[in-house]
Design brief:
Layout: E1 5-9, E2 15-19, H1 21-28, E3 34-44, E4 47-57, E5 59-63, E6 68-72, H2 80-87, E7 93-97
Antiparallel strand pairs: 1-6, 1-7, 2-5, 3-4
The chain binds zinc ion (ZN).
Zinc ion (ZN) binds near residues 21, 25 and 33.
Length: about 100
């Protein structure tokens, strides 16, 4: 298992980012999304059928200003918002560990 990393928010403002399924979950090999069952009712010729639709909501992480979030999978580095914040000048994020 890859070593967890820590993201450090070096700015005073909170930093929030999503963990997109096709990027984070695919890379990490674990799904951090929230799955919600949505019941839908559909009118058909002979009555009404109920169907369950699974809705996926990506996980979101907020790092408070000057705060840290330890124990993150290194796959967060692939998230575009994180990538951008790591390269931004002045820097908004720093990586510790990994
Ligand atoms: Zn997922």
């Amino acid at each position: 298992m890859p070593k967890n990393i820590e993201l450090v928010n070096v700015s005073k403002r909170p930093f929030t980012f999503n963990l997109p399924h096709h990027i984070y979950c695919a890379e990490a090999g674990e799904c951090r999304c929230t799955w919600t069952d949505l019941m839908t009712r559909q009118q058909v010729r002979h009555g009404v059928v109920s169907k369950v639709k699974r809705i996926r909501t990506p996980a979101a992480i907020t790092i408070p200003g000057r705060g840290t979030t330890p124990g993150l999978h290194p796959a967060v580095k692939k998230v575009p918002e994180v990538k951008a914040a790591l390269q931004q000048s002045p820097r908004r994020l720093m990586i510790k560990g990994g």
